[in-house]
Amino acid sequence: MTIRVLVADDQEIVRTGLTIILNTQPGIDVVGSAGDGRRAVELARRLRPDVCLFHIRMPGMDGIEATRALAGPTVAEPLAVVVITTFDLDEYVYAALRAGARGFLLKEAGPDLLGQAVRAAANGDALIAPSVTTRLLKAFADTGPAAPRQQPVEPLTDREEQVLVAVARGRTNKEIGDEFHITLSTVKSHVTSLMTKLGVRNRVEVAMWAYETNRIRTRW
């Protein structure tokens, strides 16, 4: 199936460039574009694209606000959002993921990584630019949550704990399946069970939960 994408960026030349790049990739079709966050939210609610690709800095309503409006914790039917920016700042990354984004890329990422991020978001996975991943995970480890994370009412199984760690380390469903020698459908079932038990809505929140409950310990 074709992945329908909405692009939002305050610079017309960038919107055009992103549209051309995405439209040349097989299975991806840009169905709309916007120059500010408010217009992007309006179009997204009307068009219901598979993935929204938002720049962070936009007039009126920025990309983080627009992401929260479409994918935040109070949204009944959240859309998949990938945030793209030229600003390599940790607070932007954290805020975008907290707002519900399924991916975070820098504009220097290139066509291949851009296509991967869109496909990952459409498939329920998450892709964060490799150049910011290490700092992001270190920020989780250093600062922790504002309040203690509630433990699941129903304990995680041993396999769910393994999948939890794999998701937190950025593995895709296919990579998890290959690592543990289980089918793709089994991986999806484990991820769905994790989201239900943890009370979260997507893989990014699963990863956050893992880091904020010290499931992951990484040396720097």
From TrEMBL:
Where in the numbering of this chain does the Response regulatory domain appear?
4-122
SUPFAM superfamilies, per the entry: C-terminal effector domain of the bipartite response regulators (SSF46894), CheY-like (SSF52172)
**GO terms, biological process:** phosphorelay signal transduction system; regulation of DNA-templated transcription
**Keywords assigned:** DNA-binding, Phosphoprotein, Transcription, Transcription regulation
Picking any one GO molecular function of the record gives: DNA binding
**Ranges for domain HTH luxR-type:** 149-214
Superkingdom, taxonomy of origin:
Bacteria
**Pfam families tied to this protein:** GerE (PF00196), Response_reg (PF00072)
The record ties this protein, via PROSITE patterns, to: HTH_LUXR_1 (PS00622), HTH_LUXR_2 (PS50043), RESPONSE_REGULATORY (PS50110)
Q: What is this protein called?
A: LuxR family two component transcriptional regulator
Highest lineage ranks of the organism? Bacteria, Bacillati, Actinomycetota, Actinomycetes, Micromonosporales
